[in-house]
Records
---
Amino acid sequence: MPLIDVTGLRHAIAGRPVLDIPHWSVEAGRHCLLLGPSGSGKTTLIHALAGLKRPDQGRILLDGQAVWDLNAAARDHLRGRLIGIVFQTLHLVAALDVAQNLHLARWLAGLASDAGAVAKALDRVGLGARLSARPDQLSQGEKQRVAIARAVVTEPKLILADEPTSALDDENCARVLDLLLEQAAACGATLLVATHDGRTRERITDRMELPRLSALPAEGHAA
Amino acid sequence: MNTLGLAWAYLRRSALTTCLNVALLALGTGTIVVLILVGTQVQDRLAKDAAGVDLVVGAKGSPLQLILSALYQIDIPTGNIPLAQAQALAADPLVAQAIPVAMGDSFRGFRIVGTDPAFVALRQGRVAEGRLWQAPMEATVGAQVAARAHLKVGDRFNGNHGLSAGGAEHEGMPYSVVGILAPTGGVIDRLVLTPIDSVWAVHEAHHHHHDGDDHDGDDHDGHAHETEATQPPDREVTSVLLRYRSPIAAARLPRRINAESGMQAAAPAVEMTRLLSLVGVGTDTVRAFGLLLVASSALSIFVALYNATQARRYDLAVMRALGATRSRIASLLLAEALAMGAAGTALGLALGHGAVEAAGRLVPQARDMGITGLQFPATEPYLLILAAGLSVLAALVPAIHAYRADVSAVLSRG
Ligand SMILES: Nc1ncnc2c1ncn2[C@@H]1O[C@H](COP(=O)(O)OP(=O)(O)O)[C@@H](O)[C@H]1O
Ligand SMILES: [Mg+2]
């Protein structure tokens, strides 16, 4: 059974078509790139998969469950239990320390409090000694690793990473990709990396290409 | 990690705003608590000490002063009246009971009151130890007098001249304690009771002693003995506490006394209503001020949370992305507001009770009134509900905002 199964997905924003995916599926445990130029709807698709943005049409099955047939609370629970998300702008909760950021993720996922699991997740990204550091005391690279640890501490079946490398230099790009692949493998999760960053192509072979359906309004030659 | 822990983390992060909100709320509730505590205690106290007295007769002067001094033992007396006139009042058919009261001396700040044993019954006093006074220079002391001055039955003490501590001691005429009263919570707890004859005797001796001396003046108005003629003395009392035989007396007696005698009659009910209506204007203003403080703290909590939901839009969206339901986000904001509300109210209650208790211990007038902060009026739970309700109200709009937020839009703009 595929972990992601999308049929007849269509979505338009402000009258302009953004997504049109007749069929697409990703088998459990695979690592997949979601490629496409800026404005091709990668973020929109990630949000639709995560149950954050309802698509106009189509069906999305995650682990066999129709995401958009669930009620709002059940969808939130499904997201918490099943998915770990890494944002481009990391966004750690500044009011909480590093360990608390991970505890927060487990609590919101409905998992029991487990200091051991938190310590282990941070250890795996090499931050075992920074448990009580505040996000603003961390370097950008450390923040990136905390964000990845936070996405995997709930042992998700699916890791969604939206442009995780776009803002990084080559060295850090490689490092973050390694980390993502390694962490996904460690918890046996399916990994979907949305990116327009060509440097990721050699590392992940499964791919889904999104065409740009409409011109970017900012580019000034919209039909 | 739980809602409260998370709320706490956010409150700590904006510690200054949190403290300001808590302080505002504490000041507001504290002010209201002080008013409730002092108000109820003063009114209880006034009502209790006026029970059974329909009319107070004393020397001409301020009727309020007469009531305060004779009934509540707080002001100084207006002067004295001749014993003969007091006795005539007792014989009046309109009068059911007349209890004479003579004051002028004190013992360690406690007033020495010469009166009839009926005074004890009037004030619902009960002998706890020993007995009531019978002969001159015997004294039965109130519970607080005994406790604070460490008096036991059989002890002897000298009175001081004047109604407050610090007057010259009357040496050579000691009182002997024959009884101690049980505590009543009323004014009688702070009195030294003795036959009227004791007061006369002490002052005749005093005047004899200081023949030709001028009295020092201060605290002297209330002296039971003002005349320099000592042989034979014109006996006087400070006031008489009357109970009417029938309601008709209320219409006739005060008017007759005020018009036809050199004395003044004042009804406690009338004077106290007048006093409370005067004081009432003041307390209403202070109460409104307290409510204004509470309301402004609710407004300030609202502004703080509203700003927080704007500043924290991304945090809240990330929590949603991590699996938080809408209601969990809303309850986080409610929890923050409630935590501030609870902390502010608790602090306000503590401040209010503490301030009243401190006043009851440190301010002599409040101490005389028996003011205590350790009383918990039945209205206080409503104050808690009010503060909790206001803070929930303050959190409502921000919570609804956060509940409705479009997570996807916030995340893609971030
Ligand atoms: N909130 C929004 N309001 C208006 N247009 C939007 C909004 N979000 C996305 N779009 C538009 O939808 C299209 C797809 O956006 P997005 O999914 O962010 O693409 P990508 O992530 O591939 O760059 C773009 O043309 C973008 O301008
Ligand atoms: Mg994008």
Note: The helical segments of chain A are 42-49, 72-82, 98-108, 115-124, 140-152, 170-186.
---
Amino acid sequence: MANALLKPMRVAFGETLLELGAEIPNLVVLDADISSSLHTFHFAQQYPNRHINFGVAEQNMMISAAGLATTGLIPIACTYATFATMRACEQIRSFICYANLNVKIAASHGGIEVGWDGPTHQATEDIAITRAMPNMTVVSPADAIAASALLRQVIQHQGPVYFRMGRNPVPILYDKNQPFSIGKSIRLHNGVHLTLVATGVMVSIGLEVVERLAQHGIQAGLIDMHTIKPIDQDAIIEAAQQTPLIATLEDHNIVGGLGAAVAEILSEACPRRILRFGVPDVFSESGNPKDLFRKLGMDAESITHRIMQSIALNPELRG
Amino acid sequence: MKIFIHRTRICLDKRLYCATIKLSDKRLRNRTSPPKSMKHNPETILSLQRIAKRIRIESVRMIANAGSGHPGGSLSEADILAALYFHVMRIDPKNPAWEDRDRFILSKGHACAGLYATLALRGFFPIEQLATFRCCGSILQGHPDMKKTPGVEMTAGPLGNGLGAGVGMALGARITGKTFRVFVLIGDGDAQEGCTWEAAMLAGHQKLNHLICIYDYNRSQVDGRTDEIVSLHPVEEKWLAMNWDVRKIYGHDFTQILDAFVWSCQPRQKPAVIIAYTIKGKGVSFMEDNAAWHGKAPNKEQLEWALKELAEEEN
Ligand SMILES: Cc1ncc(C[n+]2csc(CCOP(=O)(O)OP(=O)(O)O)c2C)c(N)n1
Ligand SMILES: [Mg+2]
């Protein structure tokens, strides 16, 4: 892990979009003045008549995406997660989801991993918002390979999709041949004492937590929940049957996100103790993401510590 | 399938920028045709020029120190900020919550390095704080946070919101019988957001004559030139159509800036907008009119070069 190759998901996104441009003639890319950040400029240069820059006008971009979709095109609207899901929230909800139009929303800068730009640019509600919209599919890849493979599926998928990426370089976790399919999670480790269910950039942190716990004789399982909606219920219930403790890991508010989704399923199907790791319902701040993660208990060390504490305090979890 | 979409041009290639003819100060001056100037004390002008230079130096330095931030927009607004905070606005740095103070809102919140440098120089907080910009625990967030920074009147960062916040403050002043003035600095990319024009329409309708908007017209945004992405032209007519009084200036000439503020603060029936033709990155040759420097920190060498140019630039 320590020497893993690093690559930002948005770079893989831009590269794959360029490939898809050649393969899918009705794919159109929409930007709102940050094509340099989303790496959509490759596509824009190659396919100028299938690229539209709306300027700083996310609401108009999103509602126009709905209009474009009615003409048989597949629009992919690209911006930061805050602006996509909050500035243009109603356009997505009432005109893309309600109308069930084939629009893809690609967002980078999901989570406090954004760091220096601060809370206005750190989306910690976007999963909760998009997850609450009927007809929506919510996808959150963990590395550059997953971003590329899942993007291909997203474009093939019929209906609205919210595709969430981070800002910074993240370790490459997957082999190029790893199969991905929307709605089907990936099991990275089998556990005895607990199972970690992670999404996005938290999957690589989950891997580190697994290693750290192993040093203390605790065997943790790990699931990459790259699709948050529709969520892989079977995998979650199976994990709860195998291990007495479930921990969810997300770079998002613990309210309404992955942790909430997992808790909703287990409370009905297989009640288990759940630890939710993520942003503890606060606004973060500007700073190095490493510092912010530590401050909010989202780094591998803090997560490991809290899990061990919980196991120590609850004899039934010792297995 | 037939694909029928309007071709839109984008301008990302750095080489394209290098090839673009830089708009010279002179050409801009000619475009703005100022009405005959008032007499301003030459010492005032000189002192404001010195302050603007300090604002630029501190802005570039703090962005380099943080390793991220937005130099282009911070440099284009520096002269306007110097005039506002050191000449025009009725404020008391020792009492930032003074009820009757004039308000300033930076709608283009990304350019907050310029605002923080101005506030520090004006005495709202110690200048040493600038070194903590964008660090964990700092009062100086990556985008303005009104709860953390003395002197920051409104949180900002998501574009298009500053003018609406200013409308709210101006309405509040009217309802509470106050006479403070509300200044809002907006960017041209910022003005592509629809809510800017919702606010402009309401301000015109409500005749908010204590609301003054400064339009930082550097014709540049993240992806390149506004004229190539979504043109704002003709700007003057847009504001006139929203029932505003309009004045055009060259935003780096203190005589014109002060003239415009005297004009904007005269008794009037409408809100006033000052369209300031500016140069993004003004004062640092390699940043000037170059969108590549919208949101990038200079490295050590570039910083030294920039500081040298700024120090030499004798107005
Ligand atoms: C709602 C929103 N969309 C996108 C962004 C990302 N962004 C930051 S600055 C910027 C361009 C701003 O251009 P302008 O207002 O002209 O600023 P200036 O040229 O003065 O730096 C963009 C698109 C944002 N901050 N807010
Ligand atoms: Mg601009």
Note: Chain B has one domain: 7-314.
---
Amino acid sequence: MDKLINVSPSPHVAGDYSVKKIMYGVVLALLPALAASIYYFGMGAIVVTLVAIASCVIFEYLIQKFIIKTKPTISDGSAILTGLLLAFNVPSNLPIWIIVIGALVSIGIGKMSFGGLGQNPFNPALVGRVFLLISFPVQMTSWPIPKGFNTGYADAVTGATPLALMKEGLGNNETVSNIMNSIPDHMQLFYGSMGGSMGEVCALALVLGFAYMLIRKIITWHIPVFLVGTVFAFTGILHLVNPEQFADPLFHILTGGVLLGAVFMATDMVTSPMTPKGMAVFAIGIGVITVLIRTFGAYPEGISFAILIMNACVPIINRYMKPKRFGEEVKNGK
Amino acid sequence: MLKTFKKGGVHPAENKLSANAPIVTAEIPKTATIPLGQHIGAPASPIVKKGDQVKVGQVIAQSSGFVSANIHSSVSGTVAKIDDIIDATGFKKPCIIITVEGDEWLEEINRSSDIDKNLNHKSADIINKVKEAGIVGLGGATFPSHIKLSVPPGKTAEVLLINGVECEPYLTADHRLMLEKGEEMIIGTKLLMIALGVSKGAIGIENNKPDAIKHLQEIVKNYEGIEVVPLKVKYPQGGEKQLIKAVINREVPSGTLPIEVGAVVHNVGTAFAVYEAVQKNKPLLERVVTVTGKSVSNPSNFMVRIGTPTTQLIEAAGGLPQDTGKVVSGGPMMGKALSNLGVPITKGSSGVLLFKKDEASRRLIQPCIRCAKCVTVCPMGLEPYLLMNQTEMQNWEEVENNRTMDCIECGSCMYTCPADRPLLDYIRLGKSTVGNIIRSRKQ
Ligand code: SF4
Ligand code: SF4
């Protein structure tokens, strides 16, 4: 034979999967929530999103090209995703320069300093968000009031989030039912008509994104279901013990980014465990820490911190939560 | 709900292009190159020498150890030489090369195609016949079949499973055999059951072969104790352990053989070979081979004499397509890429698969994004990404503790990985290193 043929070990076929497809799949799943934030926060949401995405992509390109000196891989979609998630986790009136700093921290410290895609132990967007929350507490907690589409950006009227109102009220020894009067009802919360980070408000849109990712098999149900379930159960018990001191579980789930965190932040593949068992432990951990921070800690929300704390536990979880090996039960059963 | 195995698995595009092509008898080659090691275990030792005249069916090399098998001449003619030739493994292996003259068969072989339904045989006689006939697992594993029929002391066989799954994409050799030699295959199954002393037999067939399922279901009505079990299509259901799990819902413990859970598995091709050996006195000297590929003009199934050069089959299926980029012996998931198209067809060759240029190369490797897809699809419950990392770091103790030796090399992990990581390449390296470590520890 004078023809050249390829020789390589099996398998000789590969499925129709790629990193790009997964990343853009998640971006697609985020679109309903993006649409909702544009509806509620208008111009601000658009500006924040564009700035966050553009700066994440540019920082990734610059760092890869000039500092690490490798071929830039911005087309894999992961920087776009980080940018979008960062935008989702900040108020829609955040000054542009702060967003840029957040993107630099997310990409530079959260991702590239660990070696880039796949190597980072912490969710990059959350690293950026928490950095901003600590460095710029005022700007990061002035929440525009949603009021249909508005064209203003920095001049939006601001107010507190339902969770902050709750925390403040309880701090002043008011009762839950009393505070609830000044908070949108549950249905409004479900549609997202409340102050908050731009992507976290609309539960309906987030649930749609969850369904899409499940259908496309991008993520499994374990983390979101265990996480939300844990928050529900824990706050539910507290509520039953003293309904006037602890808000009801549905309120907790619909506010403060629990759904955004459960569906999009905690499920980040790179920073979550590899087995269903591990995912359950991880998600339950996040749920418990979130509720603890909310009810007994200083911050009204808590899910960002909870996710980052559990991110740090992932290597240990992976070490002990092994998949069920084939033939294992039989061996132990005998 | 159709039965299947529970853990992991993938569903690659089936591409059974040759499913409707009846088995055609391939031309007898001009020269037959018959390797001495066509099975797992010790190569057979030749008992002919250069210049000897041989007939079809004559033993030309004898089993040389406990795990070994006889080799028969598949042609008649003169032994030209005994030499080291590159075979499908890519290595030089000793082969007997025969210049073909005519087609003269040993007299004691019954060449009529009448179906012989006589089941009046003793277990020991059947096992002996299987051994004499040089029958090995024809699904590709090529483990000498007579050994699987001798149940080790202390164990009992309860059920015989016949593997008609053919879960590899493209391949249709077993499918056609079940359709065209169904009754013979069932009689072979019955003979295997007698040999093992079991009263239960089950033939597992994936649901993408409804014609074969129906056909065999009709036939088994006349044969007591055999059941046809339709299975959901899922790769690697043809793996021994997966098939056992799917059909009788038992898990073979790590590091043991199927007999541990009372099961013995044989391929449909093997069952047919057993029929021919016992009822017709015909040793294993030919087999069904699928020749296929997206650019192949006539995807075909051939009945091929062992030792026929692969090129000849490619010619018979319409010639080597211009855009061929890779030629694989076996299926796309577990087959071996050939470096030389002259290699002979052996007992273990189930197919010749021609890939187009654009299907032939691997995609660019990307960083692992820890998506856990490889963990999800592994039918053995392993963590392929971890095995690869630890092999890369040569952390052999961890590689062993994470059960790398359980890997059946099905390739599901690598097939699924979105980052196109060469998982199985590394796992194989880890397996062979850890295998050596384990062996040296035992000494
Ligand atoms: S690790 Fe082995 S058994 Fe598991 S999917 Fe990969 S090749 Fe198959
Ligand atoms: S499938 Fe590939 S990318 Fe995903 S965890 Fe396994 S090795 Fe990593």
Note: The mean pLDDT of chain B is 93.
---
Amino acid sequence: MGMVKATIDGSDVLVPEGTTILQAAKGAGIRIPTLCFHERLKPIGSCGLCIVEVAGKATPVGSCETPVTDGMTVTTRSDRLFSLRQDILKSILAHHPLDCPICDKAGECLLQDLVFEHGITGVEPPAPSPKFTAPYATTFLKSWPERCVLCLRCVKACTEIQGIGALSVAEEQDGQRIAYDQDKCVSCGECIQVCPTGALVEKKTELRWRTWEVDKKIRTTCPYCGVGCQQLLHVKDGRIVKVSGVEDAEPNRGRLCVKGRYGYDFIYSEDRLKTPLIRENGYFREASFEEAIDLVARRFKEIIAESGPDAIGAVSCARSINEDSYQMQKLFRAVIGTNNIDHCART
Amino acid sequence: MFMVIGSNMTEAHPVASTFVKNAVQNGAELIVVDPRKHKLCDFATLHLRLKIGSDIALLNAIMQVLITEDLYDRRFVDSCTMGFDELKQKVMAYSPERVADICGIDPELIRTTARRLASVKPVMLCYTLGVTEHTCGVNNVLTVANLQMLLGNMGVECGGVNPLRGQNNVQGACDMGALPNVFPGYQAVTNPELREKFAKAWGVKDLPGKPGLMLPQMMEGLVTKKIRAFYIFGENLANTEPDIRKVEHELASAEFIVCQDIFQTETTRFAHVIFPAAAWSENDGTFSNSERRVSRVRTASPPPGLAKPNWWIFKQIAKRMGHEWLSDSARELWDNEISVLAPSMKGIKYSRLENNGLQWPCPNEDHPGTCFLHQGGEFTCGLGRFRAVEWTPPAEVPDRDYPFVLSTGRRLYHYHTRTQTGRAVGMNQLLGEETADLAPVDAAAMGIANGEIIRLRSRRGEVKVKARLTDEVLPGTVWTAFHFRDACANWLTNAVFDPISQTAEYKACAVAVEKLQEQATG
Ligand code: SF4
Ligand code: SF4
Ligand code: SF4
Ligand code: FES
């Protein structure tokens, strides 16, 4: 593939043909403000914020969609661009409720950040309008149609990434609206993960928190199927409050399914086993580890003495960590002295 | 191109299915081989709706066409494989016309499929339990491999055979030696040198050299008293194993059962001692996914009450039995024991697992890991060996008393016996009960309406369950899952096993479908 040379804000860049101005700028360490663009989606081109000036062109071009051509000279910051971007943001705010104090997204909202960055003050009181054909809520998510900025990330994510197509764009007389089809939706939450605003929010838990109160985001591996998706656990006060996909991780590249995103809270169930139990006269009674371990070790020793080690068998857990399975087979092979160990790979 | 056999990916491996869909959206072809018309079929160029359990006949016929029409990869077959002549001899008997009835597939469609497969390279073949959960499961897997070798799709990126693992750490449990015949890293217990190596590492004089029993044999041993004590770590055998009545009889016969779990389950009812274990996100460790990628699992919150990490509990038992083990965390177990003892994982250390993990084989600490096996046509035993096999029908086929084929599987919103998803807020709302999926024509013939409670009966048991009429299933078949105890398919399934892998035939047994008598009114 051929390479092309260009100048962005005075720096020379050399990039493969087909690279967009936005990508080239990023590679050169130059940030261009964007709203609808998302790394995992093809350029959408709906917001217009990413405009830049190209020498020889009268009007600015969208950098997320325009490829670099040889000899191009690009300017990403200028007074004109700044005020054009301000105008775009103002027109969004004209139809966006100033919900920040009650919006779950506040603090992690791209719109909020862009408005702040562009120093927009004194907007007229907004006249919010719903940008969805109808508001909706599912078991795990709720829409706030007034907050939507019609960036279309969610629609693209649902079709392009998940291949579901539960979200679509309806062209109505007064403009575009987002339409949602409940029968198609599989509750994967990809739409929430990419939404830059509070137009789509989670309602998995009754707990409420501000985004900045999350004290840890811990990367881990999903406990459900063999895909092994990488998750980010949002932890507040020692409790997982939310799970999201790790954006640039292998193997899932940000994606999760309904189990990976919303199946985490079984660990907080009241039904959890909390102490060892020993059966006595047909009933279980609570016991200490000390006592339970003594009993197991004693019975195993008796059985080995009477019938040999092959009279004991074990099945390990295909859900638990590697180290647990390793440790169990070591217990059976080295301590008990049998190879009677298997697991449920077969089921 | 992708070929997906016996895998309801969109529900069982949802995120993997999104990548297949993306490839199709970007122009790749997809061939689905499955009795059920599941969601992925919407993306398929071809859907071969074969009869349940006829996979080998179909794949052999595809190979027959490839050989007859000289479409196979001669170069790969000549240089990288052995046993072609025997394969040829066997599959030549499977003409598309002959298998048409066995599979319920038009001979022309079989030919088209073979030609399509031969026209594109590479083809990645994915399969899951629809292939393995048969009495001929091992033979199914061999046949799948035969096809890919014949097409020369082995050892190339985006080619090969890609078994999608069901549970999150099935791969890991195998890798770690939770199998009766191998130590960690697939090192045979029958090899005296390996036994010596492990004995030395574990501080014992010697280790048993005779392969142990597989799970179904151990379960049967509980009844014959050959097995007197049974340690069940985290598996709900009383719901997941075929023929619940038989399983419960076996568990009830046991002299001493230890269970280690995070919840009481149908299985812990049979325990004499239960240990409370730390769950996912309550301790550090690693999982290995279907691609052999070792990834970190990290602690987010502490376990409840006295619950402890599983490895810790095993360590305490060893101690009471006179063995002092040094490692005192999952990290120490991995870095100081597992990666030292398993050559294929030697280069994997916790310090290298911070981000995307590593795929074994990874023989040293500078090695980047291996993303696809059999690179350049190299197989573990040198040349790839064709192992031709004959088709055999499922152990139990429909007859007059039990005219339907029951097949089982998983659904999107739940996981196995729901010990976890059933306790995750909202999941039961998305899917609150089991259904028996039934073809509308069959339902009409019996006067069964959508949503009506019906009875499924096999030689082993019966369940009452809501009928769901759908074209997803072929006439003559009924499909259900094992997520809900009352309607659990395993009251019905047949406890017959593949002779080699001892995998149960969950995917086929014979049942009767019955309309319930009208409820007496008043
Ligand atoms: S949850 Fe998933 S399927 Fe449903 S609308 Fe969002 S992206 Fe689409
Ligand atoms: S709901 Fe969110 S992602 Fe979708 S168009 Fe509106 S703002 Fe964009
Ligand atoms: S998020 Fe879904 S697809 Fe990914 S590992 Fe978990 S269960 Fe599997
Ligand atoms: S980021 Fe380019 S148009 Fe929105």
Note: The longest helix of chain B spans residues 55-68.
